[in-house]
Automatic annotation (TrEMBL):
<dbReference type="InterPro" id="IPR053140">
    <property type="entry name" value="GDSL_Rv0518-like"/>
</dbReference>
<protein>
    <submittedName>
        <fullName>SGNH hydrolase</fullName>
    </submittedName>
</protein>
<dbReference type="GO" id="GO:0016787">
    <property type="term" value="F:hydrolase activity"/>
</dbReference>
<dbReference type="InterPro" id="IPR013830">
    <property type="entry name" value="SGNH_hydro"/>
</dbReference>
<dbReference type="Pfam" id="PF13472">
    <property type="entry name" value="Lipase_GDSL_2"/>
</dbReference>
<feature type="domain" description="SGNH hydrolase-type esterase">
    <location>
        <begin position="17"/>
        <end position="195"/>
    </location>
</feature>
<keyword id="KW-0378">Hydrolase</keyword>
<dbReference type="InterPro" id="IPR036514">
    <property type="entry name" value="SGNH_hydro_sf"/>
</dbReference>
Amino acid sequence: MGAMPAAPAPRWSRYVAVGDSFTEGLWDGPEDGSAPLRGWADQLASHLSARRTAAGEPALEYANLAIRGRLVRSILDEQLPVAIELEPDLVSLVGGGNDILRPSVDVDTVAASLDHAVARLRAAGIAVLLSTGFDTGQSPLVRVTRSRVGVFNAHVWSIARRRGAYVLDVWGMRSLRDWRMWAPDRIHLTPDGHSRVSQAALVGLGLEPDQPDWDDPLAPLPPAPPLDQARANARWVREHAYPWMTRRLRRVSSGDLLTPKRPVPTPLE
């Protein structure tokens, strides 16, 4: 028998990612900053590029404009015009988490802005990957946002249907219901979490995942003693929640002085 034919190359040749810390890849790298952050979008780009080169096509060109702390309005005003100028054929437009953390957010307004942006991208012939928000039901404090996330997700699916966009469904990922997938700040993912989300992104784009077990839950651990849980919660408030609230009161963001980590589309070898 002859060799099996190579799988067809993904049709996209230039991918630009825009968004906030989730897409920037926060916590997917050494804590001492000795190596660049990676993240699910970088990994998705690597997967797409590897499939292209395996099929004899040029490597994928990739840029990542995401910056931590950005609200949807900032993403659309600052990053989206730059992304369009780079002439991609695929854009991942992922944001809203920082907006939803604010009790005063109008989710419908955020979604309307997102819808307008997706319509603009699709009119330019650009494929769009959106994302749902995470299910915060298991978080001791952040779960107060769960109803807002649910409304936002309903908008995301409606926008995708209306505009012909793809959806990365992190809300539905069983593996992310395990705290071992989450970084110490309980808002961002570990490297394993980012890796699994990159597989979910492939599925969201209608492609086969590289790892069939990408969303299998981890083997359960015995419950932690209540005193250990209380100590962990207190440490989280001291090291992560309090600094975040302090920045909010001062109206500053952890990403205020940052620039995009990969501003120009370059081939991924």
